[in-house]
């Protein structure tokens, strides 16, 4: 079993920050990485909106008070020092005049002067702590390179100053130590103290205490345990008690937040008449330990969830979205805290919250924002049961979407997979462990049909986030001594927690290409893009055009017309086109880039541009039962930043063989009057149909979420005109609303019914 580290999972810093902000009555800055600076006792964070995780207004906590830095005399050298304090390798730029918004509290430093080589900002020259003639309109910010210093953890830190604290917690099974299936859900509570692992005296132990321990270990709830069995077992074993008098309310995210009493070193009689505390936890649906539990859970009727996570690189993390009136929407981060985040985590079958994140740290949503100022006690069964404020249009923007990171149970799946031969730990040839006890060995995976979805699962199992690429050839990576292919035919949906859960061939391995150079590989990344289509714009701009054939030679060359166009009487006659504008936003945490490099882009003389992807979007007209009656497609004519959110700079443009892509916070607009921005409906008969648009349909480029890549609309075509309505992203509606959409009877007149 892997112990749970308090240094990785602790909420103290976040809890204290939120408390300070509530007292000051100021808006909640983002709870970004915070880091102690040696003996100086300073802490650093990035704040402000809008921004990415590696940029923002620099805030320093000194003497328990957060403050900012004035931009007077600020330089890139000072930014280098501050980025290292924040856990990044270096700075790529800095900002002045409160670009990320004015801060609050003290202005700690003014006229800061650094050479760039200092180990701490305390070594730089300045006017002295708290001595400034600036206002918060002059707050300085930094833009750091999105690369962490070795060993840096993106987490908050529990301050351990005067009292000993619980560093780690685990459950030790009473019998069968090391042979129980993972995750371990029941056993003796053991805590790691400075002098080693110790048990907890069960005198006064309550269900609230068990609830907190289970939450730390990744389980949503606790259950009663047969203490008589464990007391009988305890009589035959020796114990080392280090903790007693545990008193939790039940809403704490970590045991160290409870009232604790530690035994002194000279205590001779520890836990007289007592026994070690025992806890039994109930695993969430993703982590049921046995088939019996699975069958029991599956037999219960499951209603549709009213909360979900989107955009997270790891299980149990993501942007919080809630269901209201049949439509999914986000939650504003105002007053967002660990209690509310823990309610979300437990509702989804995970443990308590490890972090409550603000400032759209898991990417921005699109559409409605349903909740604001959510205030939970931590005991509610659902986020909807917490007091909250109904959102208004002026209250929040998607740059303030709330997110969570939940505690997860240890399943050991990451120990059954590894990468070899890569230039870094984030890439390499995939090796998996197979065999039973005594015969475990490592082997390779056949590269046939290995793609982005399979690579996503491998990277998730490795704990390395998303997959940038799924590779079918890995000859440039040394395989070492591992040459046997032990898995083939792997096909994943992309949501599995490990490759074992994907469909694959059994013990009979079948590969088209048997050499080790054709085995599976991955390149993983902590961030990924996320493309969404602006569905309302499609609905607003759809219309029919009868276009003469003599104006469609280029479109025919690019295969943008129906197959019947080949037999048309060129250049006479016309084609009937359903035209509409499409605005494709990148709301992820990494730029969207074409899979192919510039060397393989294809020049098209007709339109005077390079195509960087063979197929970028599918356009289809479907009957209500799903039969395709017309189709279109769009190669990536050229991917570029047409427009961007405020304070986001354009990075990609197609002119002069420029780099192609879509920057985070920007969108690529294909106007309705551009060639191939249509569906050829010349052969479509009048009737009721579904218009479907799918971005990145072949999963050629990795994204954090593929479920939002499709958009659907109801449409009626009477042979002369077309009405398009009810356009929505594929995962924007509830299951019931989607069923109503699919059962839509159509229109009997020009009116929407």
Automatic annotation (TrEMBL):
Residues 290-302 have a biased composition (Low complexity). Belongs to the lysyl oxidase family. Its cofactor is Cu cation. Residues 44-145, 169-282, 307-407, 417-525 form the SRCR domain. It catalyses: N(6)-acetyl-L-lysyl-[protein] + O2 + H2O = acetamide + (S)-2-amino-6-oxohexanoyl-[protein] + H2O2; L-lysyl-[protein] + O2 + H2O = (S)-2-amino-6-oxohexanoyl-[protein] + H2O2 + NH4(+). GO terms for molecular function: copper ion binding; fibronectin binding; protein-lysine 6-oxidase activity. The lysine tyrosylquinone cross-link (LTQ) is generated by condensation of the epsilon-amino group of a lysine with a topaquinone produced by oxidation of tyrosine. It is found in: Cytoplasm; Nucleus; Secreted, Extracellular space. It comes from the Eukaryota. Pfam families: Lysyl_oxidase, SRCR. Gene3D superfamilies: SRCR-like domain (3.10.250.10). Mediates the post-translational oxidative deamination of lysine residues on target proteins leading to the formation of deaminated lysine (allysine). This is Lysyl oxidase homolog. Residues 290-316 are annotated as: Disordered. Its main location: cytoplasm. Disulfide bonds join 70-134, 83-144, 114-124, 248-258, 332-396, 345-406, 376-386, 492-502. PANTHER family: LYSYL OXIDASE HOMOLOG 3, LYSYL OXIDASE-LIKE-RELATED. Its EC number is 1.4.3.13. Keywords: Copper, Cytoplasm, Disulfide bond, Glycoprotein, LTQ, Metal-binding, Nucleus, Oxidoreductase, Repeat, Secreted, Signal, TPQ. Residues 1-25 form the signal peptide. The keyword Repeat applies.
